[in-house]
Structure formats: structure tokens, C-alpha cells
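Entry 14. Structure prediction run on the chain below.
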Amino acid sequence: MKKYLALALVGCMTMTLLGGCGGSQTAATDAAASASATDAATSAGTSPSTGTTTGAGAATAEGAGTQTADPSGTDGAKAAFDAIVKAAQEEGELLVMGGGGANEVDIVQDGFKKEFGVDIKVSYIPGSQAKIIAQLQMEQEAGATPSYDFIPASADNLMKAKAAGVIEDVDWKQLLDGAGLNPNYYTGLPADYISAEATIRGIVYNNTLVDANELPKTLGDFTDPKWKGQFGWLSFANQSVECLYFQDMINDDGQQFIKDILANEPSLENNDSMAVKVSLGELKFGYLSSQDYLRILETDPNTPLRFQILDDYVMISEGSWNVVKGCEHPNAAKLLALWYCTPSGIDYTRLSAGSRDLWNPETPETSYLADAEAVGAKVIWVSRQGEYLEWLGTDEAADFLAKISAIYKGE
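Output returned:
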């Protein structure tokens, strides 16, 4: 039987937002320079964590093999990590792509102080991923200093950014080792980033309008005419392409599948709006991420929303945070990526974004991975699928995306 997140989860979301665990550090450029070229260029860190756990169901999930952490870190990695912390203090600033919510700047700056003992002035600059990647490429070609130090990116935009040469190559495994953090936060190549943020795609539904047993059990069930006009589907064509890829449907069958889905007149609004519509009863359910439910649960513990996985495919997305190549504050940028993997950073993203650390077995949402294993669902950690990420950069991928985009537009 599938599980859904009950209101008891609210108690799990009241942990202290920022935890203090780290001694003070002083700026020392010479310390950074004394590290090896590789270590100094790729180290960043956070106070040691005892998290050496693995995600439930990881053994059977595609691309989610587990590793064992050394909480103390190796001597070389720890020395390089310490050097970068000091260098970041000297940099003193950080330019981040993002909106920077009401309290976000203060929370992140306090996190730097409490986790690393450094004072970093954080500035958020809004913008769209695709446009900023193009801007960074132009700045690089012109020999100009990048406008950003740190950018998020979806899987497809990440690979475009890497192909454009605007993402810094960082030895994230060394950083996790030096900081004493869980090595499973490293996604591996070719994504090559670290993340403790994960969301599970499934069905967010209104339990006053539809019973869990009546819901679609597979992706194919979304084409059933009985759901016409009553549900929400992926709002962007690239998300549908992702689904089709892992169903081995990069072909005419895949195009027909999307046509059949859209013939059912689903809502194609963004995730936040769609989740609200389900909550208000304007839709019965939506194919959304667990975070879309959890964000509403945090502010409304009486919400009628529930979350349920599918029986065939369970896709997991991990937040992607990246250091811009040639940026002005590279060490502070690396520290920010590491901060998101610390207890206080994980708490922050849990409360603000609804994401979860699925490598911690105490995280309630890991029960979904066990459920998926029980029903034989294919669990896919998207950012750890090397063949898929490489495929995104091919002409075939671009051509197929154009065809699916045309279907979305009704062409």
C-alpha cells in the first residue's frame, strides 16, 4: 500500500532553522595559496557532520549508489578545506542568481557565520537560467568578470552551461571529505555537483475530491478520458521529454503519448499555481513534486492535499548549485554549495523549498522509496543518469524537444 504524508510531518518541520557548529576562521590568502593547485581551486566546506547515512531504497534506484563517509576527512582534504574557508573570508562577498526572499539573505549570511565562522555579504540577482547562461558565455568570450558567482540550473540548463564552459570544475568529493559531510551528496559525472536537496515526482491530490485508490497508477493512466479537465500536467515541454526518455519513448509513440495527455485538457500552470488549484478543489490532482505539497503543508497543516507515488516510474530531482567559472568570489561560492549540505542548510531548504535529504533514513519521505521498491517501480535519480545528461546535448534531443514544444503549442 502506498503511503501519504500525514499531518504528523508538521512536527518534523519545526527543527531549529540554523544550527551553530563551527569555530571562527580568519582570512588568509597565503593559506589558500599554500594548498596544492587542485586542492585550493576546488575546496570549500562546512563544519563536520556525522551524517554518513544512505537513502532508503538507494540500492535498487538507478544512479544512486551509496558511499561511506569519513567524518573527520583526510588530512589533505581537511587542510585544503580550511584554506578555502580562509580565502572565502578574504573575498567577503557573494553574488547569487535568485530572488533572495524576505529573510533569505540574513539566513544565508548567518549560516556562513555559524557553520564556517566567516562573514560573507550575500547579494541575490534575479534572472532566468537560460538567459544568464548565455550572458555568462558572452562575458567569458569578452574577457569580462562574470556577473554571478553562483547559479542554480535544471538538468538541461546545467549541461548547456557546462558545454558553454561557464561552470567551474570543482573536486566536490574532496570538499565533502574535507568538511566531513555525507559523500552521497555528490551526484557523480557528468552532472558533477553536490546536493542534499531532493524532491520526488508523483501525484499531489485533494483527498476531499478523490480517493487515493482511484488515482492514476501509471503515467499511461493520465490519458484516461475520465480525467479530462480535472488534473494538472507538466507545464514545460522539457519536463515531458524527461518523462519520455526514461520510458524509452523518444519516438513517434512518445509524441502521441503527449498528444493524448494534452487531449485530456490538463492544467499546464506552474507547479505552485497548480498545487494551489488542487488545494482549493479546482483540480482533483496534479503530476507534481513532493515539495509542492510540503510547502503548502508547512503553512496550512489542515490542507486537504496528500502525496502519492506512481507504480511505474518515480523520478527524483536534486537541486543543482554551481560555481561560475572565472567568478570574482569562487571560494565563497563553494562554501555556499557546501552550506546547503549542512544541517542548517538542509533545514532551510526543507522549510523554504519543501525539498528533503533523502540520504538520511530519518527523513519521512524515504518511505516513498521503500514503497517504490515494494511495487517494483523504477526509481530514477535524474541528475545521476549519465547517458541521459549526455543525450541532452545531442541534436536528437534538440530536435525531439522542438517536436514536443510544438505539440504543447498546439501546432
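Residues 1-60 have pLDDT under 50 and may be disordered.
Filed with the rest of this week's runs.
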